[in-house]
Amino acid sequence: MLFSRITIIDEDFRIRENMYVGIRGSSIGYVGDTRPAEDFGREYEGRGRLLMPGFFNAHAHSPMTLMRGYGENMVLQDWLTKRIFPFEAKLDEEAVYAGTLLAMAESIRSGIVSTTDMYYMTEAMVKAYLESGEKGNISRSITNFSGEDLFAMDAGREMREAFERFHGEGDGRIRIDMSLHAEYTNPEKTVDQLAAYASSIHARQHVHVSETKEEHEACKERHGGLTPVQYLARHGLFDVPTTAAHCVWIEGDDYAILRDKGVTVAVNPISNLKLASGVCNVQRLLDEGINVAIGTDSVASNNSLNFLEEMKVFAIAGKARFGDPTMVTPRDTLYAATRGGALSQGREHSGLVKEGFDADLVVLDISGVNMHPVHDLMNNLVYSADNGDVKMTMVDGRILYEDGAFTTIDVEKAIDGVERATGAVLSRLAEA
Fold this sequence. Notes:
Layout: E1 2-9, E2 15-24, E3 27-32, E4 43-45, E5 49-53, E6 55-60, H1 76-88, H2 93-109, E7 112-119, H3 122-132, E8 135-142, H4 154-166, E9 174-180, H5 188-201, E10 205-209, H6 213-222, H7 228-234, E11 242-246, H8 254-260, E12 264-267, H9 269-274, H10 282-287, E13 292-294, H11 307-322, H12 330-344, E14 361-365, H13 377-383, E15 390-395, E16 398-402, E17 405-406, H14 411-431
Parallel strand pairs: 1-4, 1-5, 6-7, 7-8, 8-9, 9-10, 10-11, 11-12, 12-13
Antiparallel strand pairs: 1-2, 2-3, 5-14, 14-15, 15-16, 16-17
Helix pairs in contact: 2-3, 2-14, 11-12, 12-13
């Protein structure tokens, strides 16, 4: 495919107009301001359109689409213990598959090309990802309240089997990460075991960190004043590339540890605001040289995968919380949504419109009423664009969505599957 006369965000995050971008197989074969001599096949007229890197959702729990709107206007602990945990206890493989597939459809429509996902029943999730054509770093989340040996647990066995069976599936689209759910859901022995195992197999790590003030302070009480960041670092969890979700309440030396260990912070602004968890200090993270990415968290706490909406809140939440309207620029936001997320997943050859990089791209309509006038297109993209402006989503050169049509997912069937699965779970809850 050849995108012609199209506006792009180039590899240096500058706006360039009237460009030509050629897709060769799964990668970008040409970027230039003149028409290439090579025949790239179908020509896509780009006037009134923007081509940019696709979005990377750096923290999600995709099967939780089943719980959209199920627990609202509740404090976090009540939300978890009275609504989410009882519902999750009744899930089966069919429900997890259905919830994940619907999340993939919503992600594709939102311009998301890859997701860092944390949940369980990993095989069902991988099946949905492979069918959708999306990329994903999927992890089997580990919680261990009993204190038993990690590898004697069903969760530990599933985690190991998932890595052995699915890591690298779909021509590398699927990557299996390790996941300690959080400091407060696991004993020290489990943290040590998981850290050592991830290091031995060179896997990435995904963990919740300092999402709430209560979690953060309770960790310090349990561990002689150590914050969750300090505690996890001491136990070697950050000795492999790690994505730390939330980091709303980190403090002091936490920033230097995250920077020095090369940890990515996945900021989840809408979920954190909705659950009244707080506002992450994104500007401090950026100033400290920490890689920052953007996550949606679950649909149960968000309640959508509208990534452009997430970007807008990411850009503005800190301005209000910390009283500084200069914090977090549109360029910072676009980088976090694309290249920052790609790096958090270890996808070094994605997240940029650059020759030789994976063709993980999104096309936006920039001709609409909400995008004019154009004093600065980057400002409009972050503050004015909406989900309806997404016109194409492409992963590895394959079009998954174009002008309202999905090419890999039967959306009506996916919706029906979720409705049936949700009904079955609610029936099991009623019988309990």
